[in-house]
Amino acid sequence: MASAIEDEVCYVFSPNSDSAPLNFASPIHVSPKSSVRSEFQKPRVKITHDDIRDEIQFWDSSVVFFVLGANPPSHVIDGFVRRIWGKFGVDKVVALGNGVHIVRFTTTENRDKVLSMGYQFFDKKPFVVKPWEQSMSVNKEDIKSIPIWVQLPKLNLMYWGEKSLYKIVGMVGKPLRMDMATKKREKLQYARVLVEVSMSQVFPDSVEYEDADGVVVTQPIVYEWKPVVCETCKGMGHSADVCTKKTKPVWRPKVVQQHPSRQEEGGFSGGDKELKANQD
Q1: Mean per-residue pLDDT, 37-66
Q2: Could you tell me the CA-to-CA distances from 215 to 116, 159, 209 in Å, in that order?
Q3: Is residue 5 in some structural domain?
């Protein structure tokens, strides 16, 4: 029976067969808007504005922040936030991941007071603060410019005025403000100015200016912190030549020491139990 079926199949599909040619139906094109439901389509639910209204109201008095160039532990951030913002009614300090935190205040008025405080710093690193929004996505990589403090050591006292001082630091970045000690001329070891710089710019160690008598002066620049990206660990705030992670561990197969054979020249070489048994 099986042989008869095989002969029939061979006859039908034989190139020399006199049977009529095979005809195929045209493919059916299904529109994407077709009402036919794919068997692989997952079920879906609709979230309405009414469903999320309570959560929006809850987080509306919050700010999102991170320290650029560092990821301090959560308990350190919690203590720091409550120390600088505690008087504004801090309700919650919660980590969102990747060094980003959210702080909820008791009222939106207190949140706005925090946002109006200006630039904040943590260990001389920029403390980036933004108001929480419904669809915001906070990434450190999105920051294009930041404020940093620069020092001008041994600057002639004649050039501590805002006009001349801002001209000098203007070759590094956009001057924002002098610190209080510089403004009051209380610490004369160096002038200190907050400047806005680009994340991708060059940070010169010195700049040149022409003084009032036409003499070209080279002024050293000291950065309290700068947004240098390490090529080794991709961290921010240091270069690859001083990176503590530049020496990467190299995997090597573990060498398994072979125990010597039980009998070697000169006596026994077995374990303690075997040696003790021979001594007995």
Answers
A1: 87
A2: 42, 14, 8
A3: no
